[in-house]
Structure formats: C-alpha cells, structure tokens
TrEMBL record:
It holds the Pfam family PepX_C. It comes from Amycolatopsis sacchari. InterPro entries: CocE/Ser_esterase, Galactose-bd-like_sf, Xaa-Pro_dipept_C. One of its GO terms (molecular function) is dipeptidyl-peptidase activity. It comes from the Bacteria. This is Xaa-Pro dipeptidyl-peptidase C-terminal domain-containing protein.
Length: 249
C-alpha cells in the first residue's frame, strides 16, 4: 500500500467517504448523554431516579435488523433481515426502556466506538442487558444504528465472572460497536435498553445455570431496574465530530 494513502478511509452515512489520520479521529468530542426520568436523553445530568421493566425469557424481544446473517423471520417478514430496519414493530412491548433526545437543532455526526454505561439491578441470579442506538426520523421511523449486549456475570470481563446479587446495583459497560452516521437536524437520538435481542443474542435463562445446561423449564422472569442521575448516572458515550472541522473529503 502506498505510504501516501491516509491510514483511515471511512464512509459517513449521510455525508459520504472521508479519510482520517487515526481512529477514532483525534478531534472527537466525547459527549456523555444521560438517561433520565420519563425516558429523556440529555447532556444534562438529571435528578436521581429509576425505571423498571420485566424480562421474560419465554417472550424475548425479537431481533429486527442489525449485524446478523439471517433472513426472513418466524412470520416470513423482515424481522431477521440485516441492516437498518424500522424498530416501530417493537413499540407495544413493555420490556424495553427508551431514552430519547429532543429533536436536534443541527446535524450531529457520530463517528467512532459507542459505549453505554448502565447502572442496574435485577431480581434474577443472572441476566443480560442490551443497548441499541436508534435514529428517530421526523416521520416517526426509528432506524437501528448499532447494538450490543452484556451478560451480568461477565460484567468485569469474560475472564472474571462474578455472582449477581439480586437487588444490588451494578455498573455494566456495554460495547455497542462503532458507527459513522450523521443524525440530521430534526431527528432524535434514542437508546433502547432491554434484556434480550433474540435470536441475534442467545436468551439468558435468569437461572444462573451454564448456558449449555439450560432448558426452557429453567427460564425465570426478572424484574430489571435501571438507575439514572447521581450516584448512578446511566448514559451513552457518543463520539461526536465537530462540524465542519476541516473534514477531509
């Protein structure tokens, strides 16, 4: 490869191809967007509070789009097709918490790795927490951007499994992958928190048993509580690229 080529070439969804000298770009403005009461998402730290949902592994949140290699779906529809898909078919579910920003007053480019820091408790012996970044359009369409999952007992890493104490608040760091996308003015940034995204991610039985030893008879419903504000500020960390910042097109 010729040494004159920039080390990074990326496609910014909504803006086209661009080159960079490093990854993530050195000019990145790492912004913390906090979850808040009433499903708010804001750069302002909210008052302390929490929100609750019940996860039933018998009825997991179905996968709609994303980085998957499946097609079709149980209903023959688009539910298992990869890529960006409208998430509105999930709107009626009560086992998803949604945290949504106000409509953006200007374009916001998000380019780089995404991380959710979740402060949460569970009633189960083990559980999963999933996070999904969503681009909500003015017409109501809600398109997935990236998603990730953490298994509670592996919150300190795969090499350091630890027990989950029911009812105790733990910090969970969820790797939501990386993206490069311009959220347009008038759109809203949303983060969906749940405990399943099936079959993209295997269901957690909630029993604490090893995955290979579990049957549906072991499935346990779990009451999940997500905390926000001090001292448990759940949030997403967004890599925002200042505009125009002399972008190298």
């Amino acid at each position: 490869m010729p040494s004159s080529l920039p080390p990074v070439r990326l496609y910014v969804m909504g803006a086209g191809w661009r080159t960079e000298q490093e990854w993530p770009p050195a000019r990145t403005d790492w912004q913390t967007w906090y979850f808040g009461p009433g499903g708010t998402l804001s750069r302002e730290l909210p008052e302390a509070g929490s929100a609750e949902y019940v996860h039933d592994p018998h009825d997991p949140v179905p996968t709609i789009g994303g980085a998957i290699l499946m097609a079709g779906g149980p209903d023959g529809g688009l539910s298992w097709q990869p890529g960006q898909r409208d998430q509105r078919p999930l709107d009626g579910r009560t086992d998803i918490l949604r945290f949504t920003s106000p409509a953006l007053t200007e374009d916001v480019e998000v380019t780089g790795p995404l991380t959710v820091v979740l402060h949460a408790s569970t009633s189960a012996a083990d559980t999963d927490f999933t996070a999904k970044l969503v681009d909500v359009h003015p017409d109501g369409r809600a398109l997935n951007v990236a998603d990730g999952v953490v298994r509670a007992r592996y919150r300190s890493g795969m090499d350091s499994p630890g027990p989950v104490v029911p009812g105790e608040v733990h910090e969970y760091v969820i790797d939501v992958g990386a993206t490069s996308l311009v959220f347009r003015a008038g759109h809203r940034i949303r983060v969906d928190i749940a405990s399943s995204n099936f079959p993209c991610f295997d269901r957690n039985s909630g029993s604490g048993k090893p995955a290979g030893a579990v049957t549906e008879a072991d499935f346990v419903s779990a009451t999940q509580r997500v905390f926000f504000g001090p001292p448990h500020p759940s949030a997403i960390r967004l890599p925002v690229i200042p505009s125009p910042a002399g972008r190298n097109q």
